[in-house]
Amino acid sequence: MIIIGEKINGTRKAVGKAIQDRDAGFIRHLAEEQVKAGSTYIDINAGTPPGREPDDMVWLLDSVQAACDLPVCLDSANPAALKACLEIVDKRPLINSVSGEKSRMEGVLPLALEHKTNLIILALDDIAGIPETSSGRMEIVRRLVSLALDGGLTQDQLFIDPLVTAIATGTGNAIITFETIREIKAAFPMVHITSGLSNISFGMPLRKIINRTFLSMCVAAGMDSAIANPGDKDLMGAVLAAEMLMGKDRYCMNFNKAYRAGMIGA
Amino acid sequence: MKDTQLLTQAVVDMEEDKALALTRQLLESKTDPVAIFNAYQDAMAEVGKRFEKGIYFIPELVMSGDMMNSAMEIIKPYLNESDTRDTGKKTGRILIATVEGDIHDIGKNIVSTLMALNGFEVRDMGVDVPIDRIISEAKEFGAQIIGLSGLLTLAFDPMKNVVERLEQEGIRDTVKVIIGGGQMDDQICRYVGADAFVTDAVAGISLCKNWLNGSI
């Protein structure tokens, strides 16, 4: 499972303050903690106004690169911020994200193609918004995957986000995501599938139980990545169990090693 | 307990079949349809209170709204002209959008759903909506309220620009502007120049209802 550690996000109050105060120690700690917990990428999101964002993103990137060897996920729709980061990034990053929206197709996609980065693709656009059917989402995914492949990226550089909407307002909403995942895997077997999870449980009690059950079911449908907090042992346990049950964990070694390392379980 | 109170109780307890059966029964026994309608209104208020206390969640809000809408279909034929004026008509026109630069839509969608369930005529423009489109749509739709949603700090400036454009177009006084999102507070509200801010959907709905009752 490819875990994109989500904790360095400026829309969280403490992180926003650390960015404001240039508290590199705080950021380093968040990075190290996520490395230890089993992240594959460290997401960085400044969450600041466009004028400040390039400086803030570069500072975050510097801080994270000084703290660990993991590649980063550049979480911004601001071409100036992405450009500035791409000039100093050490390892091939993942860009989060491009969608069918005009601004992102014109501003973000060319940068990903030029720098041959890995890329998250969202199944939404200006016209349809988030389509309410898997076929609507697939139409956007097909269009964007073609553009990325034509531009020289390979399937395994692409992370498709099937999108998740709240179960509280539509009891069929999780099923749309499961169906979209299956259709993406059928059409493009080598791409990765990733998503944030917490949208599913918005407006509900016991959100964590819903989130991790949902993630397990997404894994069963073919998801192999998540934007999540790797420090959540229950969530990570559910992920590893789901992958194991789907026959993707030889001799159950990922699960058992994670158990012995204290990364999952009580 | 009076029959209308039983009805209120059934709606509050999320007993859909019972509520609709009681509604039919009351109508057949010549209960004033406006009293039945009011029983539903009372139920909605109680459901809202339970939501605020953390006993009920979004699905209960959605379900009670759906019950109310189903009931309205049953009640409608029994209403005469003057009743319709009190109960049947849409309470107000609200335009909702997540502003330019932001694509967060979970909160906005819930507000849209709940507003519609509460009788508002809702035009939901989606996410990342340019200022020009918000202004032209507001005029065309005759919006009485503009609800601007955003989670990111970079949503604040587009919100401010919407208010400024309303002023330039000379229509600022004809419309209320409410901003919503997890980060909103009084300071941001003043920066944007909005009439109010909210951080949860139910608060937003009661605020908009109050505006309309005071006729904006």
Keywords:
heterodimer, A: alpha/beta, 8-stranded parallel β-sheet, 11 helices, 48% helix, 16% strand, B: 216 residues, alpha/beta, Methyltransferase, Methionine Synthase (B12-binding Domains), Chain A, domain 1, Rossmann fold, elongated
Shape of chain A: globular
Range of helix content of chain A: 40-55%
- What is the topology, as strand order, of the major beta sheet of chain B? 2-1-3-4-5
How many domains in all of chain B? 2
Biggest sheet descriptor of chain B: 5 strands, parallel
Number of helices of chain A: 11
* H/E element sequence of chain A: EHHEHEHEHHEHEHEHEHH
* CATH level 1 name of the largest domain in chain B: Alpha Beta
Relative strand content of chain A: 15-25%
Structural class of chain A: alpha/beta
Radius of gyration of chain B: 19 Å
**Biggest interface: chains and residue counts?**
A-B, 24 and 24 residues
